[in-house]
User: Fold Acyl-CoA dehydrogenase from Dyadobacter chenhuakuii.
Amino acid sequence: MDFNLSEEHVAVQEAARDFAVNHLFPGVIERDDEQKFDKVLLRQMGELGFLGMMVSPEYGGGGMDTLSYVIAMEEISKVDASAGVIMSVNNSLVCWGLQMFGSPEQKAKYLTKLATGEMIGAFCLSEPEAGSDATSQHTTAVDMDDYYLLNGTKNWITSGATSDICLVMAQTDPEKGHKGINVLIVEKGLEGFVVGKKENKMGIRASDTTSLLFTDVKVPKENRIGEDGFGFKFAMSTLNGGRIGIAAQALGIAAGAFELSLQYSKQRKTFGKPISEHQAIQFKLSEMATRLEAARLLVYKAARLKDEGKDYIQASAMAKLYASETAMWLTTEAVQIHGGYGYVKEYHVERLMRDAKITQIYEGTSEIQKLIIARELLK
Ligand code: CAA
Ligand code: FAD
Assistant:
C-alpha cells in the first residue's frame, strides 16, 4: 500500500497546519478553561472547507478522499482536539451518512449547508442506558402514518447545544430488535425538543456535550433516512468511518504532545546538559516516535482501504484502538518529560493528556474495538 502523500495531500496538510497554528492556537487554553468554542472559528473552518471535506462538490463539499480528511484531522487535533471532534462528527458521521444514504431531497436541504458549516450536525445514538450496548435503544419513534412521534433521551451528544440538526436513532418496532430501529433527521426548534444539561468534562472541554430530550416531537416522515428499520445499520456503517476520524484525532493529540516534548527536551537543562542528552529521555522519545509512526500507518491504511472501496471495519477498529491507546500513553510520557512544567496549563501537554482520554471511550470504547476486531478475525 502506497503511503506517499500526493501534492494535493501536502497542500491539505499545509492549509490545515496553517489554520491550526494561526487561528486555533491563540486562545486554546482560554477556550478549554471557559468550555466555549468560538463560533467565528467554526465559521472559518466551514469557509475553508474543513467541515465537509469528503462531501461531493455537487453538494458544496470538497470532494476529497478519506486520506485528505485524516491528514487535516491530525493537524487540527495537534493544536485543538475540541475543534477536532466537532470536525470529525460533522464530516464522518453526519455528512458522510447523509451523502451515502440520504435522499436527493434530504441532501439538497441539509447536506449543502452542513458541508459548508452553515449548519452543524450531531449524531445521536447513545442514551443513559445504551452506550456500548447500542442496540438497546429506549428512545421511541412511533409511526403515526404522517409523522414519527419521538420520545426519549439521548446522552453525551457532541455539539448537542450548537448543532442545528440531529441524526437521531430510535426504536420504532421493538419486536424486530435492531431491525426495528430508524434514523431521523430532527431539526432544532421542533416543539418538544429540548437541549439538556451541558457536561463539565475532563477534556475536549471547548466542544459542547449535552443530553437531548424529546417529548412527543413530531418528525416528518420524509426525514427518515433510508428504508424502515435501517437506523442501526446506518449507525454502524457511519461509525466504521467515524472511527477513522477519531483515530486521526488521537494521532493528532499524540503528535502534538510529541513535538512539544522533543522541543522541550532540547531546551531544558539538568546536570549541566539538555535533558535530551540523558539516555532515559532519549529512550522515551524513541518509543514515542515509534508508536506514533505505527499509529499513523494504521490510520492511513484504514483511510486508504475506505478510499479503495475495500472492507475497512477491522482496519478502522484497529486504527482507533491503537491510536487512542498511543495518545493516552504518549501524552502521559510528555507530561513526565516536561516535569513540573508539564503539570501546568501554559505548556499544553496537560491539556493534551486530558484530551487523549476520551479517544479511548467515544465511538466505541477500546474494549468494544477489541470485540469488533475479534469478531472480524473469527468470522
Ligand atoms: N458495520 C456494519 N454493520 C454492523 C457492524 C459494523 N461495524 N457491527 C454490527 N453490524 C450489524 C450486524 O451485521 C447486525 O446486522 P444483521 O443482523 O443484519 O447481520 C447488526 O449490526 C447487529 O449487530 P450485532 O448482533 O453484532 O450487535 P451487538 O449488539 O452484538 O453489538 C456492537 C454490536 C459492535 C457492540 C455495537 O453495539 C457497537 O458498535 N457499540 C458501540 C457503540 C458506539 O460506537 N457508539 C458511538 C456513539 S457516537 C460517538 O461516540 C460520537 C463521538 O463520540 C464523537
Ligand atoms: P458503557 O457501555 O456503560 O461501558 C462501561 C465500561 O464497560 C467501558 O469500559 C466499556 O468498554 C465496558 N464494556 C461494556 N460492554 C462491554 C463488553 N461487551 N465487553 C467488554 N467491556 C465492555 N454518543 C453519541 O451517540 N453521539 C455523540 O456525539 C457522542 N459524543 C460523546 C462525547 C463525549 C465527551 C463522551 C464522554 C461520550 C460521547 N458519546 C456520544 C457516547 C460514547 O459513545 C459512549 O460513552 C461510549 O460508547 C461508551 O458508552 P457508555 O458511556 O454507556 O459506557
Observations:
- The first helix runs from residue 7 to 24.
- The CA atoms of residues 175 and 181 lie 10 Å apart.
- The chain has three domains: 7-120, 122-232, 233-377.
- Residues 85, 89, 123, 125-126, 132, 134-135, 158, 178, 232-233, 236-237, 239-240, 313, 362-364, 368, 371-372 surround acetoacetyl-coenzyme A (ligand 1) (CB under 6 Å).
